[in-house]
Each structure stands twice: as structure tokens, then as C-alpha cells.
Specification:
Organism: Acidaminobacter hydrogenoformans DSM 2784
Distance between the termini: 7 Å
Radius of gyration: 13 Å
Number of domains: 1
Protein name: Immunity protein 17
Keywords: Membrane, Transmembrane, Transmembrane helix
Length: 65
């Protein structure tokens, strides 16, 4: 379980980096553009941060099991 926990924490960190830096290649994907269209730019960023927090909590929980 420790491996899955570590991977979840790393994934959460990657999601935060993507939300902060907004790399053009990722930010121009159809799925992300759809999110921006529905929720706006700030809403999409908030979604990314919430998603990262969920995976961070999951990773910590798995890591401590």
C-alpha cells in the first residue's frame, strides 16, 4: 500500500504543478478546454486544486496503512 500512497502523493503534486504553470500542451487539450468552457478559468484551477487535495489525502491514508 505504501507504493500506491506514494504514487497518489506524487500525482497530487503533478496536478498542482499543472494548475500553477498551465502548460500550453496540457491546457489546450479538449477535456481541459471543456472544463474551462463550463466552469471558467478560475473554476478549472479550483477543480485541479480540489482534485490534488483528494489524492493527497488518499495518498497519505494509503501510506499510513
Amino acid at each position: 500500500m505504501k507504493l500506491w500512497g506514494a504514487l497518489a502523493v506524487i500525482y497530487a503534486a503533478v496536478v498542482v504543478v499543472i494548475a500553477i504553470t498551465k502548460p500550453e500542451k496540457i491546457w489546450s487539450m479538449k477535456k481541459i478546454k471543456f472544463f474551462i468552457k463550463i466552469m471558467g478559468e478560475k473554476g478549472t484551477e479550483v477543480f485541479f486544486y480540489v482534485w490534488a487535495v483528494i489524492f493527497l489525502v488518499l495518498g497519505i491514508w494509503l501510506f499510513t496503512r
